Amino acid sequence: MGDVLAWLLFFFILIALLVMIVFQLMCLADLEFDYINPYDSASRINKVVLPEFITQGILCLLFLVTGHWVMSLLCVPYLYYNVNLYLRRQHFVDVTEIFNLLNWEKKQRLFKLGYIILLLFMCLFWLIYNALEDDEEHHF
């Protein structure tokens, strides 16, 4: 039962990451279609960048602590990329450069979205697998 609860926690953390990335993509799309000004778009995106980084770091740490080594290793490239952005001080969107870097920012977040979706499907698989395995044990 504990493994199922752990996978359920991982699943909801991944959903939270997914929501944060989709929110950033929506802000960039709104900016691209002139529904929002650059300052508002940058400030909205910048408000969720650090929570996204922290949430992803916690997820990687939880995978490591609970002994799910493969999932932890799959999280490492994304964590490395986020830490690298943070250390180079490139994690925030610059208001003055947002139009010049709009395509890059969208591509970056779409790649993150694809990566999170892959992790989400793997997490969902292991959640279902462990739930069925747990259910099998109770019948015998």
Question: What is the topological layout?
Answer:
Layout: H1 2-32, H2 38-65, H3 69-87, H4 102-139
Helix pairs in contact: 1-2, 1-4, 2-3, 3-4
Describe the structure using short key phrases.
140 residues; mainly alpha; single chain; elongated; 4 helices
Structure description:
With 140 residues, this protein is mainly α. Helix content is 83%, strand content 0%. It has four helices and no strands. The chain has helices at 2-32, 38-65, 69-87, 102-139. Helix 1 (2-32) packs antiparallel against helix 2 (38-65) and helix 3 (69-87) packs antiparallel against helix 4 (102-139). The longest helix is centred in the C-terminal third of the chain and has 38 residues, at 102-139. The protein is elongated, with a radius of gyration of 18 Å. The mean pLDDT is 93.
